[in-house]
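Below is the data:
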Amino acid sequence: MRFLENLSLYKKLLLSFLIVISLSYVAIFLSVNALNNFNDKITFIVDNDIETLINSLKSRRLIVELRMLEKELFVPANETEKSKNLFNISTAQEELANRFNTISKLSLDPQTSKGMEQFTNNYRAYNLTLKNVMVLIADGKTKEAIVLSRTKGNEEAEAVLISAAYVTTALEKKFKVANAETDVLYDAQIKITIIFSLSVFLLSLILAWVISRSIVARVKQLINTTKVIAKGDYSVKASVKGADEIGELATAIDTMQDKLLSSHQEMDSQAWLKAGIARINKVILGQEDLHGLASKIINEIIEFIGAQVGAVYLLKDVDNDVVLSLSATYACSSSNDAPSEFKYGEGLVGQVALSRKQILIEDAPKHYLRVISGLGETSPRSICVTPLLFEENLQGVMEIGTVKYLNKLELDYIAQVSEVVATAFEIAMAQEKMQIQQEKMRVQQIELEEANDKLRDLDQMKTNFLSTVSHELRTPLTSVIGFARIMQKKFESVLFPALADNPDKKVQKAMRQVMDNTSIIVEEGQRLTTLINDVLDLAKMEAGRVDWNICELQIEDIIDRGIASTSSLFADKPV
């Protein structure tokens, strides 16, 4: 049997021809033709339909990824993250275009072709809506973009996924039909072999049966393998050995299965990562308290990857020194003697902060860190300490411990989620600083209002004082001016006419001095009254309600008035 498996189909049929010349020619022709048809069909499935299935599955995955990237457009982010998100969207759209272009070059049956046409049209409609959403966001119309995404975008995305599922279903049905056709070919081959075997000698019958058996059993095994693969189980292998065409076909099916399995695993991994990032984003939204945010984040990460303990350390200023202070923990023992603050380079936490590189410890020493439950305690096998970096600026350090070994996918998740977490902490810290500044401004505003109230009280006291002083000055001044005017009139009407004929020069001089001094008293009294009125108008001046009259004055008049008003002071002095 091993000998026959290592012979090619041509040699097997040639051996039958040598045994039964008369019937072998027809049997060879029919068998080769049937097997070629079978091989062509399987080859077509491998080269065409399977390729179509792979591209449709990847296109479906890219649609889901596009949808997730579209939702990330509404998450507050800096320009770097926005650019990165737009680049990822552009990359996904370009890869989708390549997938559709590849499928368009393949030979498809009418049903699959119709499904792909619907798939393509639905995607173009959704892609146009996505571009409109991006334009609205770029124009600052985020609310309109969200409404468009959640209404028309959701409907079109769902239509794309439904059409993708339709194509996948159509291909699976096609695989089933292909399996049925191969079964028909198989049955026909058996019947032809049996019919011609009846007319040959017993030896040719036995030989034909052995040869057909070596072919049929392996072909049937391949058929069963393709059926299992068509149902979505990509872990099965076509365990058919041999150096003939069937062996080559089995090798091709195994290669196809490996590609499908790898693609399926990659899609599952990416979907798992995206789901984890989406859950973190959901936790971050609406959370403003820094420590509350840290607690929710470490809880979500621990639960998502199935870890047991964890902690988050954030930067803090202590006595003008920057340290990493414990902000939130998950299932950490209160009896742990580990410090709650680390300086740069101190311990693993400080070393990660200093180097800004992730550190992974496996098979940690006993008592390094304990995982405690109600029934006992154990030590974690893996401890991952990750820096939280926002645009190369350190925000904190996250430490996670598990009783299992962390795989590459989980480490990728921790690395990716650390960027999102760092961004959230940066925003939360900025908001906290802004609230502190607002509180300081509020206190300063209250102090300023109190100071203004005190100034207004002082101004009122000043105004009252000036008003009182001005009133006390005006009352006697009015009497002085009145008496001076009476004296001036009495002098002019009674005393001066009586003394006008007195020849004494001293009397005449004294009369003139009295007249001048009396006039000075009246004029200076009136000027002092004007000054008092001006003092009473200080409040108006401070309120800006006084109109200034700017005019030119003769300096000679000012000098003459000053000399006249003070001349009596120098009368008895040798000046």
Strands lie at 309-318, 321-330, 341-342, 359-362, 371-372, 377-378, 382-390, 393-402. The two ends are 155 Å apart (CA to CA). The first strand starts at residue 309 and ends at 318. The CA atoms of residues 254 and 339 lie 55 Å apart.
